[in-house]
Amino acid sequence: MKRPWGDLPGDDPARDEEQAAREALDRRRERLETVAELETAGIDLAPAPPGTHRHGDDVHASDHRHPHQHAEPGQPPIVGIVGAGAVGTALGVALSRAGWPVHAVASRDAGRRERFRAQVDVRRAFVDAQSLVEEVELIVLAVPDDALEPLARTLRMYGGQAMVHTSGALGAEVLQPAMAAGTQVGSFHPLVAFADTERAVEALKGATVAIEGDDRLLALLAEMAEAVGARPVRLAPGSKTAYHAAAVLAAGGFVALLDAIAELGRVAGLDEQGALAIYGPLIEGTLGNARALGIRQALTGPITRGDAGTLRSHLATLVAHAPDVVDLYRAAAEREIVLAVGRGALTPAGAETLRASLASVD
After folding, report:
1. Beta carbons within 10 angstroms of residue 299's beta carbon
2. Three-class secondary structure of residue 247 per DSSP
3. CB crowding 331-346: b at 16 or more within 10 Å, else e
4. Is 342 within the bounds of a domain?
5. 63: Cβ–Cβ under 8 A, 6 or more apart, which residues?
């Protein structure tokens, strides 16, 4: 009799065995698909215990020298770059052209990985950063500042390796979680605007690279900076944030100032290119004077002459036609007053008159 809910197990042993085999095969297929997905995502299914390193089924202490890629004696180290954005790609191009072998790149962004590989002749490309660590001697983390510490906590180096980051604001200590016995950490910050790869690579020639880290690593980082045409500068301990804030003013801050100049140029009937053509030589001349004479001595204009009426006239025009520029103008004028007093071009009484003028226009 056929049961409405089907046969019970045991009614047909041969069919039960066949069904069980199919189910076992389906479960195995599902497991393999899951394993493949995890490996593609860079997830280690059998992580080695902390302080150890895995080779196949064998686990070793992690303070031995890395067993994989090593440069020949007297040759640059084998480099791996984590991060295939603007900074990582430009560094990869510059190092490769300088004869420093860039063996691998790691990025979770497939498009960026492929763009990197199109410009840098790398042998390996990874989703997972730890996979890159397994194969190189010098690891360069070219990732956003906020990602550095979380990333470092997921990585484990081996004896004989070094790791550096390219942040201008953070110190080398942010990489300490990735360290093991016999490893070194540092930072390598090129003072370059990375808006375009080729322009950045060209700008590295003659640029400054701030280096920081273990004493033994500094010589290598200085050599790397010189290889791409830059000048290495060693930062004093604890100075990184101030150094980076100055860099932001020199780059983004200066662009903001240029934008304010262009806005005022529009009031005078100039388009952006016209404003740059007119005021660019004045900017370049001022920078040349600062280099030749010093910053204080390069200061010129109405504030050095104590022209309070000119300041009032400027502010009235800004309020009427470019109100977004008022605060920037006032802040710059306050700094100029300090400089003028410091060099003796303006008396304290004259400074107070100028400050009153700055405050007189709302």
Report:
1. 21
2. helix
3. eebeebbebbbeeebb
4. yes
5. 51, 158, 159, 180, 181, 182
249 and 355 in a single domain? The answer is yes
Task: Tell whether 17 is covered by a domain.
Answer: no
The residue type at 204? L
Residue 355 lies in a domain: yes
Residue with the two structure tokens 């009484």:
349
Higher pLDDT, residue 344 or 16: 344
- Name the DSSP letter for residue 250: I
**Amino acid at residue number 358:** L
CB contact at 8 A, 290 and 298: yes
Instruction: Indicate whether 287 belongs to any domain.
Output: yes
pTM: 0.70
Radius of gyration of the chain (CA): 30
Q: Domain of residue 289: give its range.
A: 243-360
Per-residue model confidence as pLDDT tens digits over 257-285: 999 999 999 999 999 999 999 999 999 99
Total domain count for the chain?
Answer: 2
Considering the domain architecture, whether residues 94 and 233 belong to the same structural domain is answered as yes
DSSP codes, 88-127: HHHHHHHHHHTT--EEEEE-S-HHHHHHHHHHS--SEEES
